[in-house]
């Protein structure tokens, strides 16, 4: 049963990867989110000019709108935009699969999209040093 669930999760991730229109980069940035009834801080796991994955235990229904506030390194202005929850993942107990929200940016203006595109294309992948 566990192997079947892992296979389904892998197939879903492959499908998401194949349907992405813009490059995505692994990036760990603090992000503030505000929904109709909640305000909280999460941690991005990856970002593109199309959207962001936010690691959080706060799970919202697909289609929920959230206000997003985040700061990109070397970008002088705080990014403030709307996002729509496209998918969510509840806590599973697996440390390699964090809970969170896949959020698509809504109404992102061109200067902000350019700033995110520049960040995504110039960021270095996180380095892992094994002991």
Give an account of the 3D structure.
- Mean pLDDT is 83; it is low at 1-17.
- The protein is built from two helices and seven strands, in the order H-E-E-E-E-E-E-E-H.
- The chain is an alpha+beta fold.
- The longest helix is centred in the first third of the chain and has 18 residues, at 2-19.
- The N and C termini lie far apart (34 Å).
- It has one domain (23-122): predicted glycosyltransferase like domains (Thrombin, subunit H).
- A six-stranded antiparallel β-barrel has the order 2-3-4-7-6-5.
- In CATH terms, what is the fold-level topology? Thrombin, subunit H
Number of domains: 1
Low-confidence stretches: 1-17
Strand residue content: 25-35%
Fourth-tier CATH superfamily name:
predicted glycosyltransferase like domains
Report the major sheet.
6 strands, antiparallel, barrel
**Per CATH, which architecture?**
Beta Barrel
Shape label:
globular
Distance between the termini: 34 Å
Broad structural category: alpha+beta
Rounded mean pLDDT score:
83
Strand order of the largest sheet: 2-3-4-7-6-5
What's the helix and strand layout?
Layout: H1 2-19, E1 25-26, E2 30-34, E3 39-47, E4 51-55, E5 65-70, E6 79-89, E7 100-106, H2 110-122
Antiparallel strand pairs: 1-3, 2-3, 2-5, 3-4, 4-7, 5-6, 6-7
Give a quick rundown of the structure.
This protein has 131 residues and is an alpha+beta fold. The protein has helices at 2-19, 110-122; strands at 25-26, 30-34, 39-47, 51-55, 65-70, 79-89, 100-106.
């Amino acid at each position: 049963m566990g192997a079947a669930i892992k296979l389904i999760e892998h197939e879903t991730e492959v499908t998401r990867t194949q349907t992405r229109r813009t490059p995505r980069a692994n990036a760990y940035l603090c992000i503030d989110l505000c929904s109709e009834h909640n305000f909280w801080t999460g941690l991005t796991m990856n970002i593109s000019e199309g959207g962001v994955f936010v690691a959080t235990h706060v799970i919202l229904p697909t289609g929920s709108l959230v206000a997003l506030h985040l700061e990109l390194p070397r970008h002088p202005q705080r990014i403030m935009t709307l996002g729509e929850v496209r998918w969510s993942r509840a806590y599973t107990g697996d440390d390699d699969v964090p809970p969170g929200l896949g959020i698509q940016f809504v109404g992102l203006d061109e200067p902000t999209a350019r700033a995110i595109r520049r960040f995504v294309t110039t960021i270095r992948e996180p380095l892992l040093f094994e002991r």
